[in-house]
Amino acid sequence: MTTEETAGLRQIRRKRGWIWFWVLSYIPAVWLARHTIHSNIVDAIVVLIWAVGFIRSIAHGMFCRCPRCGGLFFSTHGSPTMWNLLANKCMQCGLPLKAERIIYPSLE
Ligand SMILES: [Zn+2]
Fold first, then answer.
1. Confidence at 105, pLDDT banded by 50, 70, 90
2. CB-hemisphere CA count at 13 Å for 71?
3. More exposed terminus of the chain, fewer Cβ within 10 Å: N or C?
4. Residue 75 alpha carbon to ligand 1 centre in Å
5. Which pLDDT band, with edges at 50, 70 and 90, does 108 fall under?
6. Does residue 48 sit within a domain?
7. Is 103 part of any domain?
8. CA dihedral 90, 80, 57, 40 (to 10 degrees)
9. Is 58 a member of any domain?
């Protein structure tokens, strides 16, 4: 595995981490906004910021390029899709997302 592949995989993992951040932060963010500042406008602003961040992170994940084959990492057919964002390997060439954790690469 080359250093470019390692850096590319790290970048993909970071983008997926942002998706999880936005998914897991929705309820705490809305709860905080609702119980600290009792205003529907603030609630709406928090939800709007959350939605923009969530959609942006999904879009970044959809367009991730595989550092080995150059194809879309989470797409099985070459066009961007959000259905495989939780996949642990490249859907084009099978490069594992956590390749440095594989002890026996010949068995992959
Ligand atoms: Zn690939």
1. low
2. 16
3. C
4. 10
5. low
6. yes
7. no
8. -140
9. yes
Question: Cα(7) to centroid of ligand 1, in Å?
Answer: 14
Q: How far is the CA of 97 from the centre of ligand 1 (A)?
A: 10
What count of residues does the chain have? 108
Count of structural domains within the chain: 1
Rg over alpha carbons for the chain, rounded to the nearest Å, is 17
For residues 107 and 13, which has the higher predicted lDDT (pLDDT)? 13
3-class DSSP state for residue 21?
helix
User: What pLDDT, in 10s, does the model give residues 28-78?
Assistant: 998 998 888 888 898 999 999 999 999 999 999 999 999 999 999 999 988
In a domain, 81, yes or no: no
Rounded to two decimals, what is the model's pTM? 0.81
User: What's the 90 CA to ligand 1 centre distance in angstroms?
Assistant: 5
Distance 88 CA to ligand 1 centre (A): 11
**Cα 99 to averaged position of ligand 1 atoms, centre (Å):** 12
Taking residues 80-100, what's their average pLDDT? 89
Which structural domain range is residue 36 located in?
Answer: 1-73
